[in-house]
Amino acid sequence: MxxxxxxxxxxxxxxxxxxxxxxxxxxxxxxxxxxxxxxxxSGNLENLAGVDTDARYSFHHGDINDAPxxxxxxxxxxxxxxxxxxxxxxxxxxxxxxxxxxxxxxTQCLLDAVRRRKGGPVRFVYVSTDEVYGSLPLNRPELKxxxxxxxxxxxxxxxxxxxxxxxCRAYHETFxxxxxxxxxxxxxxxxxxxxxVIPLFVTNLLENKKVPLYGDGLNVRDWLHVExxxxxxxxxxxxxxxxxxxxxxxxxxxxxxELTRSILSAMGKGEEMIQPVADRPGHDRRxxxxxxxxxxELGWKPTRSSWPAALESTVRWYVDNDSWWRRVKSGxxxxxxxxxxxxxxxx
Length: 347
Ligand SMILES: NC(=O)c1ccc[n+]([C@@H]2O[C@H](COP(=O)([O-])OP(=O)(O)OC[C@H]3O[C@@H](n4cnc5c(N)ncnc54)[C@H](O)[C@@H]3O)[C@@H](O)[C@H]2O)c1
What we know:
Blueprint: E1 5-10, H1 15-27, E2 31-37, E3 57-61, H2 67-76, E4 79-82, H3 89-94, H4 97-115, E5 123-129, H5 156-175, E6 179-184, E7 186-188, H6 197-206, E8 211-214, E9 220-225, H7 226-239, E10 245-248, E11 253-255, H8 256-266, E12 274-277, H9 292-298, H10 309-320, H11 322-328, H12 332-342
Parallel strand pairs: 1-2, 1-4, 2-3, 4-5, 5-6, 6-10, 7-9, 8-12
Antiparallel strand pairs: 9-11
Helix pairs in contact: 1-7, 2-4, 4-5, 6-8
The structure holds nicotinamide-adenine-dinucleotide.
């Protein structure tokens, strides 16, 4: 079947974006993908090795704030999936300006291009995060994030993503544009930049280094395999209702300590490899997703996130892809890592 629809994907060289490209090219012969990515520190064309030669895929190196380039690519597209972002909370605490430049101004630039698109506006899927909802208490396990909650972002990263959510809402309300927003929980899987907890811990252990565990380790996250997230985004792209928000989650809550112990056990290491470090400022205590709306309306459910097998296969991927993470973890990353943890006294 020849492709019938062209998707402009932003951030397709990052963790989730590259998994989205792989999944879409493998499972959706009807789609052609244009990947626009600035190749910041977390963007890596190696993440796309093997699929980048597909005739249905093309890459454009550029910034989502480059209005003429964005307009040209939007004009060619039948829909936009917007994933490009500065994505790491710790970096946003050190310097939040790049987050607002990319996550707010970049989103605004894309929305304007879609509004002015030659031939009329097309569907815009904004990939947001559950972090816009703030934090849930540990002692109220019955509480979960649902789409009707107000946005109560607690980190500069979450604030920049929440601003993007509000821009999307405003463009839908004001210009009647076909915009759908997704809010997903923590992702895990291959090609994740090793500043995020799972690849950081696995690769540290492979280097025989300790793993820095924040605070008391009791913060809870709802873990979802990245391909489950990408399938949910495809479902929203196909069938999401204009102006709606869809939560995406794995119903898989784990404390950071439990996650750390599972990684240690999968790698045959003991708890002496845990290095407690001072907590992240403003560290959200618990995220938990009510994903019943996307299940009910779009028929999406996670199929790849079953724990601990999915975690173990992810650990195995980093063990097997030594040269990928060693290259990624060298250079500028080293300097960042030293700054990040040198400033935190071990507790
Ligand atoms: N990782 C998660 O657990 C998670 C969970 C929920 C939502 N999200 C959201 O999913 C999206 C992707 O996250 P990720 O983990 O893959 O991030 P990532 O940091 O791995 O990738 C981000 C990509 O965006 C590109 N990019 C950044 N600024 C850009 C700009 N100005 N112009 C063009 N490209 C730019 C980078 O080069 C990189 O390829 C983000 O919007 C993030 O907020 C992530």
